[in-house]
Design goal:
Helix content is 55%, strand content 12%. The chain is built from three helices and two strands; from the N terminus they run H-E-H-E-H. Strand 1, helix 2 (32-40) and strand 2 form a beta-alpha-beta unit. The longest helix is centred in the N-terminal third of the chain and has 15 residues, at 3-17.
C-alpha cells in the first residue's frame, strides 16, 4: 500500500531537492526490486528499522559514516 508514497513523495522529493544523501528507513521488509530501483536514483533503503531489528544497526552504521 505504501508503493504509491514512493511514486508520489520519495522520488519527486529526491528529484526536486537533490539531497547529498537520502535514506528511507522502513519498519517492514522492502522488496529487493524496489530497493534496487531507488538505489539507482540515489536513495538508500534500509528495512526492518526498529529497536532490535536487523536494520537498526545498519542505519546507525550508515549515519556514523556521513
Amino acid at each position: 500500500y505504501w508503493l504509491g508514497d514512493v511514486e508520489s513523495q520519495v522520488i519527486p522529493y529526491r528529484e526536486a531537492l537533490q539531497p547529498d544523501t537520502m535514506i528511507v528507513a522502513s519498519l517492514k521488509q522492502v522488496p529487493e526490486s524496489l530497493k534496487t530501483r531507488l538505489h539507482a536514483i540515489g536513495v538508500t533503503v534500509i528495512d526492518e528499522v526498529y529497536p532490535g531489528g536487523r536494520g537498526e544497526k545498519e542505519l546507525l552504521e550508515l549515519i556514523r559514516t556521513l
